[in-house]
Amino acid sequence: MNEMQPARPVFDRTTQDIGNIVEFGHVNVRVPDQRLATIFYIMGLGLTRDPYLVVGVDNMWVNAANCQFHLPVGPAQVLRGTTGLVFPDLDALMARLDAVAPRLAGTRFTYARQGNTVEVTCPWGNRMRCHAPDAARFGRITLGMPYVEIDVAPGTVEGIARFYAEVFANPGISGSDAQGRFARIPVGLGEALMFRETANALPAFDGHHIQIAIADFSGPHRRLQALGLITEESNAAQYRFERIIDPATGADLAVIEHEVRSMRHPMFARAMVNRNPEQTNNRYAPGHEAWVAAMSPEAL
Which domain holds residue 67? Predict the structure, then answer.
C-alpha cells in the first residue's frame, strides 16, 4: 500500500545567491578636525572608535557594526551621495544629536526627523540617512551601514548596472522608484551600493573612496586592466580604480574611487568592536557595554 508522501517545499534558491562582491568595508573621507569628528561620529551618532587600529591624531576609524568610516585628517572631502545607517533607537539618536548641536554650531551640521528616518549632515557636508531596524529592508541588523547611495548623472544607471555585472560578475538591477531612477548593486549578505540619478550638478570629484572585497580577485582586475581603469596596484591583496564606464560604449558614467581587496586580505571580515552608547557612568548596567548588531530570535 502506497502512502501519500508529503509535498516537498519549494524555495526560490536565487534569494540566497551572493555576488562576487562579498563585503562592503568602509567609506573614506578626509576631515580637517578630529575633535569635531569625535563629537559628531562618536558622541552624536553614537558609533565606536576602533580601539585597536589607527588610534592616533592623524586618522580615525569609526565602527558601524561590520562597516567603518575612515577619517584621515586633511582638507574636507564630501561623498557625492548619502550613507545609509541603521540605529537601534532613533529617539535616542535624536537625543544625542540634540546634545552635541551646540558644540557643532557654525559648521554644516544639520539633522531632522523625517517620518521613519533621521536625515543628518556632518560638520563638513557629508549626508547620512538613518533608519530604524527593519528586517524586511535591511535584514536582521540593529546597527550598521546597509547601503551607500551615490549621486550620478541622468541616463547612467543602466550602464552602471552593466559595468558591475560584466566587470565584477556581480548582479545588479536598474529601475525606478518614488525618488527616480536608480541602480542597486548587492554586496555581501545584506549591504548594497546604490546609484541614484539626479538633475543637480555634481561637484568635482575630491578623492574620497569606498572599500569592497571580492571573491574572484583576479578576474575583475584583468578586465579593469584591459579597459585601462586601474589607478593603483596597492599590494598583492589590493588594487584601486575610479572610473565607472559603460562596457558597451566606453562612455564615462560615474567617478568614485574603489579600494578593492581580496578575501585573503588580512583585514577581510575583521571582527569589529561596537559599544552601547546608552551606557554611561551615570546610567550603567554591568555586562551591557557592547552592542550586539543583530536582532535576537525573539525579534523576528
Answer: 19-204
